[in-house]
Amino acid sequence: MRYFNTEGLCRPNEHYMVRLDDRLQKIKQSYVDRKKYFIINRGRQYGKTTTLRALAEYLKDDYVVVSIDFQAIGAEEFIDAGIFASAFAKIFLVAFTKSYGEKTEVSSTLTDFIAHCTKKSLRELFLRLSEVCAAADRPVVLMIDEVDSASNNQVFIDFLAQLRMYYLNREEMPTFHSVILAGVYDIKNLKLKIRPNEDHQYNSPWNIAAYFDVDMDFSTEQIAKMLYEYEADHGVGMDVGTVAQIIYQYTSGYPYLVSLICKVLDETLPENDGQSDKCGVWSEAGITEAVKIILKSNIALFDSMVRQLDIYQDLRKMIEDILYQGKRIPFSPDIKSVSIGLMFGFLKEKENQVVVANRIFEMRMLNMFIAEEASDSGMFSFGESSKNQFVKDNRLDMERVLQKFVEHFTDVYGDNDEKFVETYGRKFFLLYLKPIINGTGNYYIEAQTRDVKRTDVIVDYLGEQFVVELKIWYGDEYNERGEKQLAGYLDYYHLDQGYLLSFNFNKKKEVGVKKLRIGNKMIVEAVV
Fold it and tell me: Which pTM does this prediction carry?
């Protein structure tokens, strides 16, 4: 029986997975058939290795595909060019034989190089590789996975320089038909892994690579097709279209996160709830619970995220400004922080703005930022000490939360200037709310409404949703428009009541909480 896999390579006969046929066809036609040298760079656990393995199988009838992994070469073998040349020849020979078969007249040139060549060098290695490419009965395609695992040493740069030279001169000197490199670091940012002040090491190998423009995110439709296969096997009775759409809303199609949610729904939740038939798990409530479990988990993807945000503090500051203040940052891949965030898969471009790549990343980052500030935050302490009064009969009293927040915020920060409140006001509410729902509920910031004037926070608590709009006051007319916007937004969530928290700098403002009706919706409005 197939299952959802989140550990390493996915295989369609063993795992439920999104079918890659359209992606493979585009890579073949647009890149391999056109003899391109290109790099597949995506964030961690983005399906690069699975794509390469599937592509090798897809190409095998037309090409000799030599697929190797640089992790198979030890760090000590990169110290010296001759040692590296021998190590590379060995793993190349194994991969070539696997693809081409036992044809000694073709592979003997490498066998001789490994066994008898006394002056092993990169130059000699590429001469032998050229002989192999000339003798093969089909064009040879070279794939190197985890290519950036060895990028911080000179031998690696020299290898790429030789690869570039032979590729450019392939009409005169037979070489690889197409070259495919895969890793996290792209051409522009691979220099981040190379020793500084040695620019000559990385300029020349990069200017021949074709731009790789193939979408590796999963669409809602692709997720649905995978779920239809699961439903056919298990008959759980899920609404496949709705489940696929909700999974996409949380993941934006990030391959690992899609598989992880499905894995938790399939394996963890039925076991936790004692539901052997899995009924009710594949639903919006089940996905919400699965996300809660994932956000508490120590997984390698989140560990990598924390590590990179610690290293690249400008990137971290940019993400904090986006999440806390709703800052709108114009998209430009030439900005270092943006380029790094794109490379690691933390950021993406949407409507010419920089946004966090998916909702789960946002929630995990926000949880981390808040946890780091909690010990020194007065608002977090107020929320922690008051949390017992906000839940009754397992229902969250959001109106009461707003009432107490207004009191505490006014007491502590009421005398601060407008700039302070604009910068920190929404952060303080999130800090206040966190201990109240922590462990039982979750919240996220709705990306579609986030800007410097307005932010909507969606709170999930034991199956009940609350929409809380956080708004900076810009006059009565703007406030009335915001109330109507919130009422319309409640229709989307099928809710009759919403909540509005206004940070008001009008000296004549009336601090407190009131209710007003907009059409058939009830708005609970709090003013600080």
Answer: 0.88
